[in-house]
Write a structure and sequence with these properties.
58% helix, mainly alpha, Serine Threonine Protein Phosphatase 5, Tetratricopeptide repeat
Length: 211
């Protein structure tokens, strides 16, 4: 049961594909901070781009070696830490992944991706209110973050399902609640879509203008 990290449909919130879903989210861009050295080219460093590819291919040991190599010289690197959280979750070290994403939200509150991934873990653990709050924080930092909007819709649907189920339990003659509960359950029966990671690609500099 999971919220998708890549673009998804409602069923992905609770499908048993959390590791795969986490691996499909590209890491966040470097935060805008005076303490962060900006890269000369946009996107991931070659080491982290390779680590992301390895994660997609399930080569976690090699990916972690690449990530740890980056962190050895740049311990605060948010992209490397994000990818490490992905590896931790894919390898079922859920608590470590949760701690990684939580710390990222504290160190870089302007980045929405760690909030979104933290919501994935909370949702998997049935902590839907915590997942909702994390997604709302993600949207405060980036209102146009479509993945978080969809995931938040999934959370609302799950919360609605809980309440409809409770209503039916209290009054089995409540046909309206039964119908709504059935509709919500059918919503989560839809298979999730799969969207591959699109890593940022550096663009070549334009030719210098003649004076």
């Amino acid at each position: 049961m999971t919220v998708r990290i890549a673009p998804c449909i409602a069923a992905a919130l609770f499908a048993a594909l959390l590791p795969h879903a986490l691996a499909q989210q590209a890491p966040p861009p470097p935060p805008k901070s005076a303490t962060v050295v900006q890269e000369r080219i946009p996107g991931l460093t070659p080491e982290l781009a390779e680590a992301a590819r390895m994660i997609r291919d399930g080569q976690y040991v090699s990916a972690l070696a690449k990530i740890d190599g980056v962190l050895a010289t740049d311990s605060k690197n948010p992209q490397a830490r994000f990818l490490k959280g992905v590896v931790q979750n894919d390898q079922a070290d859920t608590e470590a992944a949760k701690a990684t994403f939580q710390q990222l939200t504290e160190d870089y509150p302007e980045l929405p991706e760690p909030y979104n991934n933290l919501a994935v873990i909370w949702a998997q653990q049935g902590e839907y209110e915590k997942a909702r709050r994390a997604l709302e924080l993600a949207l405060l930092t980036r209102p146009e973050y479509g993945i978080a909007h969809e995931n938040l819709g999934d959370i609302y649907a799950r919360l609605a399902s809980v309440e409809y189920d409770r209503a039916v339990g209290l009054d089995k003659s409540n046909k309206s609640a039964q119908t709504k509960l059935t509709l919500v359950r059918e919503l989560f029966a839809v298979a999730p879509s799969a969207t591959p990671v699109k890593l940022p690609e550096p663009k070549p500099a334009g030719a210098p203008k003649k004076q």
